[in-house]
Amino acid sequence: MHQSINNDFLQKAIGTPVRRLDALDKASGRAKYIADMKFDGLLYARMIRSSRARARLLHVAVPALPEGYYYISSNDIPEGGENRLYMITNDWRVFAEDTVRYIGETIGLLVGPDRNVLRDLEREIKISYEDLEPAFTIDEGLAVKGGPIHGEDNIFAEYNLKKGDPDSIFSGSYRIVEDEILTGFQEHAYMEPQGMVGEYKNGKYVITASCQCPYYMRKAVAGILAVDQEDIVVSQAITGGAFGGKEHFPDVIAGPLVVAVHVIRKPVQIVFDRHEDISFTAKRHPSRTRFRTAIDENNRIVGMDIDIAINGGGYQSCSHIVLQRAMFSVNSVYDLPNIRIRGRAVATNTFPSDAFRGFGAPQGIFACEMHMSHLARALEMDDAEFKQQYFVQTGGTTVTNGMIHEEVKLPEMLEKVLESSGYIEKNRLYAGEGAAKAVGISFYNHGGGFTGDGEKEIIKARVRVSRDQNHKVTIYVSNVEMGQGFQTTACKVAAKVLGIPLQDVFFQNPDTSVVPNSGPTVASRSMMIVGKLVERAARQLKNSWNDQGAVDAEEDYVQPPGIEWNSTTFQGDAYPAFGWGICAVEVAVDPATAEVETKGIWTVHDIGVPIDDLIVHGQVHGGVIQALGYGSLEKLEVKNGAFLQNTFADYIIPTTMDFPAVESDLVENPYEYGPFGAKGMGELVFDGAAAAYAAAVQKAVDRDICSIPVNPELIMKLRQA
Amino acid sequence: MAVSYVPATFEEAVRIRRETGAVPVAGGTDLMVRYRSPAGTLPDFPWPVMFISGLKEMKGLFLEGAELVIKAGTELAVIEHSEIVHPVLREAVRQMAAPALRNLGTLSGNICNASPAGDAVCVLYALGAEVELTSSSRMRRMPIEHFITGPGRTVLKDDELMTAVRIPLHSDSASFYRKVGTRKANALSKLSCTGFITVTENRIVDMRLALGAVGPMVVRSAELESQCIGMDLNQFSNFKPDLRKQYAELVTPIDDQRSTAEYRKETTLNLIDEFFMLIEKELS
Q1: Above 0.90 for ipTM, yes or no?
Q2: What CATH number labels A8-31+458-556?
Q3: If pLDDT is split at 50, 70 and 90, which confidence band does A1 have?
């Protein structure tokens, strides 16, 4: 099956493309996703959910159940077990008790062999509530409408950062420009909906799941049954896409599932329908960012006072970490003096927000890029001309008073984008014509790996690479293939180090009883952090290549030298290295309908060194188009606590007809502590395109744009204003 | 669970309809979605259903006298690719949904669905289409605007089947069609606008304008259209502002999950302006 794989990368640059190892199975339909897998005696579960955003839960009346059917709730959690999920924070409950905090909160599971019967039984369940006053927006959360949902003040987390002397800038002698930038919810729209099967086998609870983070799930659910983490085995099913939606949220399904398996001792499946998945899974955090920027008499930025608030929904989960990344990203690629940043993650009664590609950075970067472009407009300068004055340089200072260690290639990248997009000439021409056309541009970076010392202190990744007696090599890591290509690129790294053909290197979907914990598949860390450990383990293996029998090599994470971080004060190097990007988008706005035609998309990225040119380009295209969807089409409103656009007919993600091909370019900039010089890139390529699009429309219609999605309704409103 | 029937012949379909009132399902592209049920369970129809996509007697399209007859079971893809269909109707069909849906869905199903946002329905209003309804005892036909009485409501009787759409052949000097969808492909309408203009010796002999998704039903005004008949360029240009104002009163859209009332109204009026410019071009 692998005979036609191109092994040219062994002689040439490692980026020389190969056919992906999963390509044939996925393209031919042979790949078995969780809903396709067969289990003997499988039972099905329907999640019974809250229909109220905020209420006292008075009573759940369950009809008499036929034999072989079960209703599972918090009453079934065994003695010593806890009704809470050990996610990043452990506030999210397995089953609601006493109160409900959002529409869709799990109340129980209905389990049995026939799905038609389950559907009929579900209709007979009567839940009585006493409604309480809900808070849905950031403002309502901050105003503690209806009383606190969390703590005294609904603040899940609040942080303050200071760079330079921000207090000095509002002395009265400077021009102050105020701004407010808003971003909305976003649905992950991964390939297959959430799903998993739980079994009880040989004294262990085995969960086969579409997921990104097998070890996270193990940790999240062990305490519910009061068992050791080793008694929970998580095995990853083929995962067609995740985007952060399968980082923590699967824990919310796995919790009730293990309780059901504990009671019933038979295999139980929970697979969401698409409609359920859009309605009742976590989304990207909405954000509101306020700026007060001081400008001196030479039209230079003297300082900024920034206030970021994100909507965390009913439970905290990872909202505080998302907030941190949003704050650390809110100066984008600029080294500005005198910065104050206040950040708050706010509790509300919307569905809890959670991880999504970029993890706060897209919100922070969008806010910064739009605010900078508004300053440029106020000063009657071009965006690119204004922004490039503040590009951070090697040795420059970040908002956490850390240092940029690597070479910053932004000027070279900017030259490339200006040339490929024709930014300057086109904008000059279009402005002269008064045509509703323009080219917008954005700048962005993304730190690879966990924030601060998270890799060293929390994750502590370990990988194993083994060679059997037939000289076949297997990579054991807990990171997953989820469409991004890591299976293939990890194998390329090992093959290249060992000088053996790709078909002799194997990477199986991880199972926590087999692989060491190399951490979750998140934070653009898989290649940069785990790939580096694979490279090191392969080198170790190479030294013992001629030993008899099977040989194992293990490697543990080591923090690169010179990285300083204080996790209490958030001072120092939040990230060891960054990916960098520039995106230009050309648009034409229809005079009658305000529909936008995207004429061209040009990007240049610095991701260190690509491990596979085609896979990297796939990530660039996917990330940029996903971001353009976020920026233009993907309106997701909450009405009375429920998502209003809850089908793919109404929640509008782009098709291939909506955007032209992305013209993607790279600059090489090898990173010493990444494998073959690679840095993180999976999230970087999402971070900037929404701002480039908004900036283009802003220029075309000559109005400040302060929110996304920039849809025709918004443009029409701005044009009339 | 709903009872379902699969008639072998058209006569049998008519009989089952009379005896049980079973709702006919052709492509099922609306009904299967509207009455969807969790994976692994049967669709959740609240009434008996009758699957008619296998009935050859109900398929095909052909010219008959001065009419194009599209039989009720004819798939949208067939209409899209047929040269005897008015190009504007073909274009509207081409912009509906995705190829897989057009291979299953039917124009008659779209009409019976009676959504004010049905794109092809808007064109049918402008073309003056009639529908043909058949029961075991009679056959009747009526204009589409009499058939549809409200969102999701029609005058189809419990014992009737829609058997054909009949579209008078129409020759125009110029036509205007614009669908504003939620995206560029596989999109539902935010609004749509269909216009036809026929000019002889620099005077309007026929003008039609139909507006979709701007009210509970497709909007077409015979009264406003007739006021334009006989006008030359000068007369029409003088009348235009008043005409626009009168159309604006008929445009009463709503906010929903796809767009806003404000956007729908403003955009529809902009498209009416574009159509009026086309009329002026034809008159000069």
Answers
A1: yes
A2: 3.30.365.10
A3: very low
